[in-house]
Amino acid sequence: MRTQVLYGTFAVACLLVYYKLEAPANAAYDYWLTLAAGLQVLGFTMLALDTSSSAAEGLSEKTLWAFIIAHVTRISTTVWGEGYIPEDNTGDVFLYQGLELLGVLVVTFQVMRLSAVRSSQDVGQGIERWSQLIGMSVLAAILAYFTKSTGHDDYWADMSWMFSTWMEAFALGPQVYLLVTGACAVDESAAHFAGLTLASSVVFTAFWGRVTRDRYREFDQDGDHTFFHAILTACFIRVALCTTYVYLFTKQTKRRPEYELCAHDEL
After folding, report:
1. What span, in angstroms and rounded, lies between the C-alpha atoms of 39 and 207?
2. pTM confidence score
3. Residue 29 above 70 pLDDT?
4. Which spans in the chain are helix H?
5. Backbone phi and psi for residue 124, each to the nearest 5 degrees, phi listed first
6. pLDDT tens column, 30-45
7. pLDDT tens digits, 122-152
8. Residues 196, 135: Cα–Cα separation, whole Å
């Protein structure tokens, strides 16, 4: 019942926002970004509420930390400027920023709960390493440095936003690796998180595909076409990892292994 209520509330909210939407011609599709953020927040909420076991076996903490880093960094770009905020009237009520902040709070709650439960039960995902998260962060920072946009004349905002985009693109890497190794069973109730994360990535990719189609020539004339190549590459990686996660998740749940938890500590 709770799941139906959440989906129903989300659908009504989307319809209300779309009905009240007002946007200039150059921001006619900005609401897709807000929709992508909303889908991801709904996925995080489903994950926090619906995991059938407190240890949430098969769920990568490093992936959740990557999401936290990506979303906190993205929120920071909206604090000192409006360059990365949807330009429609949802900006008047800070809807996009509110969704991003809510997502951070929900994921942080889930990470703290998982960490406490797994430590107390001596349960963890044995093959996960903090080096995975560090490596992803370093790679995202390097790529952001070379591929950031210069359209907003704000070096740190441009750098931070591109870092968050690459970081979110890589976020499901540890999760996919965990499932590929088959080291743990999966919590079947995380299916909503898997599906909504994929939906969010598809909407995000659709937005940037549309923007690229409409504005590539303009940016190409200014010598800033590298940004579009990079953003589409990040989108492709994000969708590919999300799709792989959904496939492996479905495959693992059908396999139904006889064990449930991994009795290894994280390093």
Report:
1. 14
2. 0.89
3. yes
4. 2-20, 31-50, 61-77, 95-120, 130-147, 155-170, 173-181, 191-221, 226-255
5. -160, 180
6. 999 999 999 999 999 9
7. 555 556 789 999 999 999 999 999 999 876 7
8. 26
Which residue ranges make up each domain of the chain? Answer: 2-255
- Helices 173-181 and 61-77 pack at an angle, to 10 degrees, of 170
Quick one: pLDDT band at residue 222, thresholds 50, 70, 90? low
119 CB neighbour count, 10 Å cutoff: 12
The model's confidence at residue 52, banded by pLDDT at 50, 70 and 90, is low
pLDDT at 263: 39
Residue 122 tokens read as 């001596």
Beta bridge partners of 124: 263
pLDDT tens digits, one per residue of 75-106: 998 877 677 889 999 988 999 999 999 999 99
What six digits make up the tokens of 206?
């659709």
b/e per residue 180-209 (b: at least 16 CB within 10 A): eeeebbbbbbbbbbbbbbbbbbbbbbbbbe
Spatial separation of the C-alpha atoms in residues 10 and 206, rounded to whole Å: 20
User: Helices 31-50 and 2-20, interaxial angle, to 10°?
Assistant: 170
Distance CA 114, CA 216 (A): 43
Contacts for 189 with CB less than 8 Å, ≥ 6 apart = 50, 51, 52
